[in-house]
Amino acid sequence: MSATIAAKKKEGLAIRGGKPAITQPFPQPVRWGGIEKRQLDEMLEQKSLFYWNGPQTRLLVERFQKLYPLKHVMPCSSGTAALHIAVAAAGIGPGDEVITTAITDMGTVIGILYQQGVPVFADLERYTCNPDPSDVQKKITPRTKAIIAVHLMGNPCRIDELRDLADRHKLVLIEDCAQAWGAKFRGKPLGTVGDIACFSLNDFKHIGCGDGGIVASNDGRFGPVLQKFGDKAYDRVGGTRTPEFLAPNYRITEPQSAVAAAQLTRLEGIVEKRSAMGFRLTSRLEDIHGIHPHEVNEGNRCSFWFYILHPDFRALSCSRKEFVEALKAEGVPCSEGYIAMPLYKYPIFQKQNFFAGRWPIREMGLTSMDYTKVSCARTEEIIANCVLMPFNEAMDEKWIDGTAEAIRKVAGHFSRE
Ligand SMILES: *Cc1c(COP(=O)(O)O)cnc(C)c1O
């Protein structure tokens, strides 16, 4: 490249004093308002704010079931609680292995550990960032009892292949849909292919109520346990209080249910918009050298919790930090990666600091797992290279096209071609 072209390229970037690609402020959605207010007013007229038989919780379940035709539904206090309930309902006990993936929220594995199970990490596919079914298969042992499929960023996993694996090896398939409200696998709502579905209603998800969660199943083996495990093993259906196993209190409350029920009426609109804008961005990025878009398998509806960009830093003459700084200067909020390290690299796993510094199942010889020896190559590659862009339903075509132009400008500037 001649010195003059190089100088010209440098001039253009906003970070070097050029004109930013986007001058529009970052779009911010209105997340709640009149619908939630009316529902909360109705809730305050009630004599009780208890979840069981509470009108708000009933409404929440009814609305949830219209979107997700699952027979047994337990609203609870968080996504983490939903996952813990699911793992307990699946019968995970001391030494049982549960295969999942290592780019996710801690909530995916907390329940496994509390039930004295062993999280086993399978690798991800490089560009969908979802479990690679062939690696999941490799991790199956005689001790494997379940798979937790994390639909990362609202991007549907290869849930048909995981379903097939689970059936062949008699494993319980749990779907972690915390980031995947409204997403669909070939037309089927995520959460309806696995045996147990888990959702989060925390403040950062597509819809929320401050904190909350839902766990649901169509399966008669697991369904009745969902309510009991979320409520001290009290049987609200039968009206008895004779606990037969150890269970925490993960109950939701009527105020949370009121907001969540109202939020559910917004879901389809939110996801429709995010999905359209996400796919639009992907189509605008496809011809940019050195940029790999957020890959979604054919026929699926991704609900784009965030948008993950995969720059190829062998094709670009910048570091990820420089790329992110340059893109931010162009007016596109973004950050280096999602979580700082795969779950197995967290101190809790490296030090096996699960129960007051000890790990009873390992001491008892029920597992030989050593997280200091675990590594998933593609998972680590994703963490080291990806760029995360916040995504929301207030984004319009102009914003998306501006974002694509900003990425084109930055990638073009640093292109080695
Ligand atoms: C948010 C999240 C959870 C946990 O949900 P909380 O409601 O925060 O407990 C679990 N799994 C994934 C993939 C999440 O994104």
Explain what the structure shows:
This protein is α/β, with parallel strands linked by helices. It has two domains: 121 residues, Aspartate Aminotransferase, domain 1, CATH 3.90.1150; 231 residues, Aspartate Aminotransferase, domain 2, CATH 3.40.640.10. It is 37% helix and 13% strand. It has 14 helices and 13 strands. A seven-stranded mixed sheet has the order 1-9-8-5-4-2-3, with helices on both faces. Strands 10-11-13-12 form a four-stranded antiparallel sheet, with helices on both faces. Strand 4, helix 7 and strand 5 form a beta-alpha-beta unit. It is globular and about 70 Å long. The chain binds pyridoxal-5'-phosphate.
Poorly predicted regions: none
The number of E-state strands comes to 13
Instruction: Give the structural class.
Output: alpha/beta
Number of helices: 14
CATH topology of the largest domain: Aspartate Aminotransferase, domain 2
Radius of gyration: 23 Å
CATH architecture descriptor of the largest domain: 3-Layer(aba) Sandwich
Q: How would a crystallographer describe the biggest sheet?
A: 7 strands, mixed
Mean pLDDT: 96
Total of domains: 2
Text of the CATH class of the largest domain: Alpha Beta
Helix percent reads 25-40%
Distance between the termini: 9 Å
Write out the distinct hetero groups bound to the structure. pyridoxal-5'-phosphate
Label the overall shape.
globular
Q: What is the spatial order of strands in the main beta sheet?
A: 1-9-8-5-4-2-3
Q: Find the CATH superfamily of the largest domain.
A: Type I PLP-dependent aspartate aminotransferase-like (Major domain)
How much of the sequence lies in strands comes to: 5-15%
Element order: H for helix, E for strand: HHHEHEHEHEHEEEEEHHEEHEHHHEH
